[in-house]
């Protein structure tokens, strides 16, 4: 009986992992391309504006982003989870209508706050310059929550390609075209504002259009309100609203408090590396996109053993795929900054190294936030985020006046480490499982050592081509490290078998190597 149950659990995990990797591949490619477009746009903006002007616009954007995310009220995660449990199209549209009914009044209120009280934000942030931008950013606040609710529907239905297009690719590409057009006629400052404001607007329009190709969006108008279901969505969402608000604040607290304690120029320098620090989340966000619906199904079916195994295996591959990126951006941070922003921004290279290296802890704990939602424990995020926020806020107040932007980086890392530690502790109490495994951790040390040796070997400056070559080498080296440390198991071998089936041809050398070095 034990063998049968274990075999079934492994089989389910393998099938879900295959589906997850397909989805993650699509999301990862769209995310990488979109982040590449975003980075290119921001590099162009940074090089076109002075640090103080860029810093002022960045603060205005941060204020709008905070208000936009507050207006979400945790609804997108709730919409994804509840649609995953519904089978009929009518029931799914009812969930969507409930989500929009919750976010609509919050969105209107938040946008009116920006329009009516821009001067108050200027005084609060100790930045008179942001007043002129905030009224325009009210459009961002209106479109952002609506776009995220519609994308949540695409996510729940497994429409990974459409979600990636609307959330990342089309919005970024459209924003870049708009910015380039305005910059070409000499109004770069207006172009920078228009770029950020246009992102959720394009995302909203494209997501509605793409969803309508699969489901008639008129269904949301025809659906009826089920007050019991609306209360369920509200009950699920409000703890996420508070936790995501706290997470949002301590994700952006560094930028806001640098503006308060230092100057717009310091914000410009610090904000310039924010797109680069996001490399730690590329793979994690790609996997999490489909992980939540699959994990929710396991939990709803009472299949806790498979859920625990799925959690560990997913975390292992997120870690393996992220490590080479993290090592390039942390160990070779000075070269990264020089390549993207030029020698003038070299002082922030150490800050980038601390942020990327420290935020790798988010990767080591895997999709813990999605797991908390899947097991219907949204208050785990609320409590964890509250503790992390307090740590982050306190350290920002203490460290920024003394150590400047490096203090902000340390405070950010400490806040996220605290938050993640609390979250995995609560998850373990709920389902008796931690994300860590020996197969995840064993290959790390050899690859980190290889990166440090490469840094010592090259010594001086490394160019763009050299950084790409180092990243490719570390990726291959980590795969070898996984083989040598016998960190491969039956789930990994099954992925190769399924890949062979999809390709219609055998790849015996890879499968043979995995079989030879697997545990068992």
Automatic annotation (TrEMBL):
Protein name: Flippase
Compartments, record wording: Cell membrane
Membrane-spanning segments: 20-46, 58-79, 100-121, 133-157, 169-187, 233-251, 279-299, 320-345, 351-370, 382-399, 405-422, 464-484
Species: Halopelagius longus
A GO CC term assigned to this protein in UniProt: plasma membrane
The keyword Cell membrane is assigned to this record: yes
Domain of life: Archaea
Entry keyword set: Cell membrane, Membrane, Transmembrane, Transmembrane helix
Keyword Protein biosynthesis included in the entry's annotation: no
UniProt cross-references to PANTHER family, sorted A to Z: POLYSACCHARIDE BIOSYNTHESIS PROTEIN, PST FAMILY PREDICTED COLANIC ACID TRANSPORTER
Topology term for the membrane: Multi-pass membrane protein
